[in-house]
Amino acid sequence: MRNLSIDYLKVMLAFSVVLLHVHFLREEIPQLGFVLVNGIFRLAVPLFLIITGYYFTQITSLEKFKSWFLRILILYVVWMIFYIPFWVRPSNIIETLLNIPIGYFILWYLVGVMFGGLLLYFSKNLKPKYLLTLA
Question: Which of 15, 20, 46, 48 is most exposed, with the fewest beta carbons within 10 Å of its own?
């Protein structure tokens, strides 16, 4: 299910993430740069998570969940392999081992999506009062 409006929003959010990481206008107009980087651009990641949750509503069976989870896991493993030269440090084995479950650098997002998907799928049949208590 494609939604052109959401696709356009995701493109704008991707630019926001890039501008956030390059500290847009930090040197030229510090006040505006601060408002943009620490305000508006910081909305990108939570909005990406909300969009992911929107599409997660299509996961209605265990088979669909397994397929979804496997796709995210494969994406995570492929990028972790790609980033191996950056996160594997034989001199610091503890940091190296911690990077596996947490994800290197920006890959925390995929770990968060997988964990959020697990929580959402396995708590979908709980009564609202239990969900409220857990929240």
Answer: 46
Minimal CA–CA distance to 53: which of 122, 113, 128, 131? 113
pLDDT tens-digit readout, 61-103:
999 999 999 999 999 999 999 999 998 988 999 989 989 999 9
User: How does pLDDT run across 2-46, given as a tens digit for each residue?
Assistant: 889 999 999 999 999 999 989 898 889 999 999 999 999 999 999
Q: Is 43 helix (H, G, I), strand (E, B) or coil?
A: helix
Asked if 72 contacts 113 with a C-beta cutoff of 8 angstroms, the reply is yes
DSSP annotation of 13: H
Cβ atoms within 10 Å of 6's Cβ, excluding its own: 15
Cα–Cα distance for residue pair 62/59, rounded to 1 Å: 8
126: left (phi over 0), alpha (psi -120 to 50) or beta: beta
Q: How many other C-beta atoms lie within 10 A of the C-beta of residue 107? A: 19
Looking up tokens 């650098």, which residue turns up? 105
